[in-house]
Design a protein that fits this description.
It contains 13 helices and 15 strands. The chain is α/β, with parallel strands linked by helices. The protein has 2 domains: about 100 residues, 3-Layer(aba) Sandwich (Rossmann fold), CATH 3.40.50; about 250 residues, Dihydrodipicolinate Reductase, domain 2. The protein is globular, with a radius of gyration of 21 Å. Bound molecules: nicotinamide-adenine-dinucleotide (NAD).
Length: about 425
Amino acid sequence: MGKKRLGVGMIGGGFNARFHIRSWVSVRDADINGIYDKNYDTAVEASSIAKSYNVGEAKVFKSVTEMVTDPSIDAIWICSPNFTRIEVMEEIVNAIESGKGKLVGVCCEKPLARNVAEAKKMVALVKRAGLLDGYLENQVFEPTVQRGKEIIWKRGAFSAGRPYLARAAEEHGGPHSPWFWEGTLQGGGVMNDMMCHSVEVARFLLTDPAKPRTSITPVKVTAHVESLKWQREKYSEILKNNSSGKLDYKNRPAEDYARAVVEYKDENGQKLIVETTTSWCYVGAGLRLSMELLGPEYSMQINTLDTDLKVFFSRDVQGKAGEDLVEKQNAEIGLMPVVGNEENTYGYDVENRYMVSCFLEGKRPMENFDDGLNVTELLMAGYMSAEQEKTIVFPPPGLDEFVPLVAQGKWNPTKK
Ligand SMILES: NC(=O)c1ccc[n+]([C@@H]2O[C@H](COP(=O)([O-])OP(=O)(O)OC[C@H]3O[C@@H](n4cnc5c(N)ncnc54)[C@H](O)[C@@H]3O)[C@@H](O)[C@H]2O)c1
């Protein structure tokens, strides 16, 4: 692009955007020059966080169009809720096509969309506008994932043969904003929200680093979803109270547990397995990400709660509930793991550094909207499998039009 520094604008200034902002201290050659959030106060707060971290002047914009139009903005990171993807992307593309502004590229948070039709629209829009595109799947960029993959493939696979099994899990006690819990807004329950990470990181680990994504092909998907905790009387009441009465988990729950097995074939027809499990009903210290990669003579494992730092507080230590030790923290006393640098551990640093350098070099990132679309296709096949209680041969007919029952507000396992 000829530029030496990238000016980035964030759409959405909430929980996730703040992870990006804090990670920016490790990003070179780019500044956070703008924030747009539908809620003005949230944008102002996010902007002041950016300023306090000295990662950019973060002007507060009043619309997506105004942000695209500003010459200090070269690229946009979409960090607003899932149900806003299409409207946000359409506004970006309209602003470019009407000649109001210019951009190099757009990055979009996970999941790319709520279903395949929307994901395909995101891909079509970004291509139509001629923009570079990055899919913000941070777990692929976790330093342990990157390093583990490198070592396993260089030593283990090189000498004993390729890995055949990857496992990934993401679990915590439930999301922080009410919209995540509403199937129609979010696109599903925990499978759409968190298994998007797990299927992609497991696929990434199983893929030969010297080969493209297409070197392994998904052939079957078998999934299972349940509502284990949050439909219980006590917990559905909590959700109702936290959402001013909007969430109705007695009648309109979203799944809080999901597991899926994705069977792949490599170029030699060899079977590979991805095994994923996710839940919003894990009550441990906080967010737990785990990954494993197994091959004929080796294995690797990651568990983000296996921290090197642990603190202990006796029952006499009193303090407010917070998230200062680990994301989605559930307790403040006893023996507690502390993630020293969450932005780094969860992959935000490396992800943002990588996306910025791709955009400055005018190169399409290796994790892009097509990957986001592939993830959505796998998840939708997963919902089909769970609804039909059978293994789905991939890709199944009707995948493009499929909208899970939970995303239609029609899923209720207690009324089967
Ligand atoms: N990579 C990860 O691990 C990770 C973690 C959390 C969230 N996310 C993703 O990031 C996105 C945002 O999640 P969050 O946790 O920040 O949610 P959040 O509810 O904390 O914040 C969302 C923000 O977007 C704003 N907003 C709503 N509609 C908007 C619109 N049309 N335009 C601009 N702003 C709008 C809201 O006012 C809110 O401040 C979601 O897609 C989510 O899936 C990813």
